[in-house]
Amino acid sequence: MAQFKQVRQTFLFRQLLKYWGNMVKNFDYDCGDNDFFDVVYNNFDHDKGVELIEVAYTEKELNTMMHSKCRNRRLDFTDTLDDVFFALWNNEAGRDKCRAVLDAIREYMETDCEQTGDDIVECRFNELIHVLKLNELESELLLFAYVRDQTCFSWPLRIRDRDKPLYYAMALNRSFDEVSRAMSPQSTLLKFNLLDSDYDFNTSTLGGFMDGTSDEAISYRFYTKGGNEESLPWEFFGELASRDGEVLKRMISASGGKCNVLLYGVPGTGKTSFAHTLAKELGRTVCEIRQGDVDGRNMKSEARMVGIQVCNAQESPDESLMVVDEADELLRGSSCGISLFGIDIGAGKSTEKGVMNTILDEMKIPAVWISNTRPEAMDESVRRRFDYSICFERLNHAQRVAIWRNQVAKHGLEAVVSASKIEEYAGRYETNAGGISIVLTNVRRMNPAPDKVDELILTLMKPYCRLLGVKEGEGFLPAKDYLLDGLNIKGKVTLDKVVKAARNYLDEGFCLAAEDKPRMNILLFGPPGTGKTEFVKYLGKALDRKVLVVKGSDLLNMYVGESEKNIARAFRRAEAEHAILFFDEVDGLLQDRSNASRNWEVTQVNELLQQMENFDGVMVAATNFLKNLDPATMRRFTFKLEFGYLDDDGKKSFFERMFKTSLSQEEFDDLRLLRNLTPGDYRTVRQELFYLGDEATNLDRIAALREECSAKKDTPESTPVGF
């Protein structure tokens, strides 16, 4: 007759018997949980167990236990084997005999549990030990934790988590001191989350690898080699490649292995592509730490940390480049929230900084860490361990053009997407590489007729931009009927001379002989609607330069120091794109510091003034409230242009041009009576009459302009005295 309820010819079951047998040998207290004897109950025959007990004990001893008043010590052979041995164990006088019977049962089960062939768990565990480079004790502890997780092994008492090292020592037949050291927070097992904080096997880290549900090698569970990221040409990264890239190539080549590089900044700006291109330039294989789905679960931080260690131990320092993408959670300090360059999205889970510091210190192969987290959100002790760092800011126009060109070629759309269309898309949609790739992938799949490609790209791009909050621009161009003549510019310098001066400034040959190349900062001030913004549009078209429009709301940030960084970032972006930098409503940024009540109000003005001083480009600022500007700003503007209300000639010029009509002398005399008239008033009236759909006379138009003037609270219409 079979002695077992279940015959388990596995490595796992043999280990269960070993650890359970050690616990039987070393535990010498009353048992508080009959589940401890489930090993016998689940795997040994009841009658054979009773037979062994009757041989080991005298009839008197058995009779005494059968009549015990204490339920925990009362023996009843009709009970299941777990309850039988629970009673035997708790009769302290006969505990040694109980221990001997249990040991005999263990030997019976071991004899019948013969291994046939290679066991998947044993093979996987041996691979795990080799890859993670665990010593003998660490291997035993990890294996025991896995046995407890997968089998019926239960503690003889309900214990607190902090007491588990003592019971681990009993199960492994080891000293408590050596086990407690191997299970300390600084140990390999806990530091790399092989055991969790409760000293249990961490299934989220090792998952289905141990039980064979995944056929992949353990290294592939944590990182991939080569990857499927198609690297962009090195020259695509422009100044980034020539400046930072060349330094990195020399640094990594000379490092002898260890070199931690941080790439951080705005999402979708090419950090991952740069890392892959850098590896290609160096002739190294990319080893990318996995972050996606493994065995149906997302890779958690602890699993990724193990992956880093596996890769660090397995790969060659001379041939590999580790890439840790989406490293935000790994790098954030424990007290920091999640923030994407000034946009706080709440507090989140983070990795213990001590663990991260150890990982960074013990790196043996060069590693590129990629994060969208603000540097301030990373603990300082983590930040200072990076050998080099690069901040990736928003893509400029030239980079977007290169991405469009690259993606168009990748999807085989060169025949239907022209170079001029690429320029148009890059200027119109300030999206990232991911958005461009998604749209063109769907265009290729949908395979529209050649003459429908442009329409489909626009159709797909619009909702993507709305979803991500990307503003769609039609181009910052002047109105078709815009002319400089008719504007009322006060002072000796005319607008056409300012345009000429700006063109000369951008002409390197013209400025070559200058001892001190002057700044080209232009201030436009005057009442609303007097043509300041339209002039900036005109200037951009005349100079064939993109106009980068910045408002105070784009730069001001609730975090200390972030507004100043945004200001500096705007100037750097304008320089990179060779664009005219236009600060609209600049009074919100350059307010008089003597009226400041907070320190940051002063520092942001200081930052803007300093950037204006050193900016190597054309900067234009506009304001409706000149008196609110800080006095120190005035000397930093090369030209200061006051836009006034239209004079009589301007009134007539704009009327006839905007309404495509001619004025009679009587109508002109009526128009001249209107005070504080601006070009913006004409546009408003033209739109109003257009949407009403009525046929309007010049008198109707003049009446509508009169209403616009009357609506201006600070400058009510008045009739000149004497007329």
Textual characterization of the structure:
- With about 725 residues, the chain is an alpha/beta fold.
- A 6-stranded mixed β-sheet has the order 1-3-6-9-2-10, sandwiched between helices. Strands 11-16-12-15-14-13 form a 6-stranded mixed β-sheet, sandwiched between helices. It has a two-stranded antiparallel sheet with strand order 4-5.
- The chain is elongated and about 135 Å long.
- It starts with 10 loop residues before the first helix and ends in a 13-residue tail after the last helix.
What structural category arises from helix and sheet content?
A: alpha/beta
Question: Order of strands across the widest beta sheet?
Answer: 1-3-6-9-2-10
Name the helicity range: 40-55%
**Uncertain spans, ≥5 residues at pLDDT below 50?**
1-9, 294-298, 334-351, 715-723
From the alpha-carbon coordinates, what is the Rg to the nearest angstrom?
39 Å
